Structures are given as structure tokens and as C-alpha cells.
């Protein structure tokens, strides 16, 4: 995790500040939720879509389709994918 121009694992930040890694992760999750994004995005974690153009295209197509779906329709589509 990068903070104030220093990059180190979350566990090291926790040790530096005398808190648990769970506290840092919880705070990241709250911030991400408020911003409407994910902790991975905040941390700059690259996804498989960043290295696989075909996967990226499929992900984009799914996201575009999901924009026109209800929450229940999205949940049903995701559940079907797991089977």
C-alpha cells in the first residue's frame, strides 16, 4: 500500500501505527464504499483484465449489460455463472 510516498505491505503499516491490519482494511473498505468503488481500485491492484484483452472485452460487455439490469437480474446472472 502506498501512503505519503512510502510503499509497504498493510501488515507493515499496521505495525508502524500500532494497529491491526484488519483496522486498515476496514477503513479502506469504508472509504471505497463511500466512493462507490473497491479497495482493490484504491490500492491500484491490477486485475486479470489488465493483462488479457479478451477477458477485458468480456468484462466490459458484462458491465454494460449489467447497467440495464435490476439487482435481482444481476444476482441471478452471477449465480448461474457459478454452477
Task: Give the helices and strands, then pairings.
Blueprint lengths: L1 E2 L2 E2 L2 H8 L3 H15 L3 H5 L9 H14 L4 H12 L1
Antiparallel strand pairs: 1-2
Short description:
The chain contains five helices and two strands; from the N terminus they run ββααααα. With 83 residues, it is mainly alpha-helical.
User: Helix- and strand-based class?
Assistant: mainly alpha
What count of helical segments does DSSP give?
5
Helix content: 55-70%
Strand order of the largest sheet: 1-2
Compute the average pLDDT: 81
Number of domains: 2
Task: Please give the alpha-carbon distance between the first and last residues.
Answer: 35 Å
Query: If you compute it from the alpha carbons, what radius of gyration comes out, rounded to the nearest whole angstrom?
Result: 17 Å
Number of strands: 2
Strand composition percent: under 5%
Q: What can be said about the biggest beta sheet?
A: 2 strands, antiparallel
Shape: elongated
Short descriptors:
83 residues, mainly alpha, 2 domains, 5 helices
Task: Please give a structural write-up.
With 83 residues, the protein is mainly alpha-helical. The protein has 2 domains: 45 residues, no CATH class; 36 residues, no CATH class. Helices cover 65% and strands 5% of the residues. It has 5 helices and 2 strands. Strands 1-2 form a two-stranded antiparallel sheet. It is elongated and about 45 Å long. It starts with a strand and ends with a helix.
